[in-house]
User: What shape does this take?
Amino acid sequence: MKRFATVALTALAPVSWGSTYFVATELLPPDRPLFTGVMRALPAGLLLTALARTLPKGQWWWKSAVLGTLNIGAFFPLLFLAAYRLPGGVAAVLGAVGPLFVIGLAALVLGERASLRTVLAAVVGAFGVSMVVLTAEAKLDLVGVVAGVISSASMGAGTVMTKRWGRPEGVGPLAMTGWQLTAGGLVIIPVAALVEGAPPALDGQAFLGYGYMMLINTGIAYWLWFRGIGQLTATSVTLLGPLSPLTAAVIGWAALGQALSPVQLVGMAIAFGATVAGQLAAARSAGKDQPFSSAEQINQNISIDLSDERVRR
Assistant: This one.
């Protein structure tokens, strides 16, 4: 039951990310994706760090910078580049293959041995997403494809390394999330200034959209995501990824009046079923084989668990 609750809470992160397209197109200034990336990450990171009242120490300065770059600073710009150069469906499918990167990296770095069922769940999930988002008119662009693949690999590596490094003793997921979002936002600032120039003028609608993106779509969502990484296997967490494009499709139908064809409905059922099956397979594998960890890491995890109890209280 505890694992189910953790999976359910972690799943709220990709569900929230599925609302990004709706909020960006309906509330935010057009053609400013990098500025949006900064507004999502940096204020949320500073707020969470202030709430946690904890700054990195020692090696965690550079570790936070690396994780923030992989999960946010590199991921956001590459994702936006892929979205601009490719039809939305193609970009979404490239994102949906992210679990395969994590499965491979987790096996190499963490010793997480994925079962055949887990791998099949990742492949079938990506196939289901492709049925939902791909159209016959979709065309490929080499730069966009490369950007999409690297963005998926970047967040996949960030997920695995977040699991590998864990957290400092006495530091909870709130602080770790704040550090990474702050670092990632700082990485995006010079790229946004170079590519997009000065920030745009903002009206009340834009402030509402950015407020939602900062607090819900990024601050809370990434806190839940990194919290899940700390309590579940990296593979289990990443298999929740297809929920994001599925949520985007549902919002497009409900709020924007976009029609869903029978093929798309079947694809949604396949992708959702694969997500559930992947969680069941990951839970079964986790029960049989615990990921490799050193004695130091085991002691660190015990300390983290104790510190998390204090944080939650």
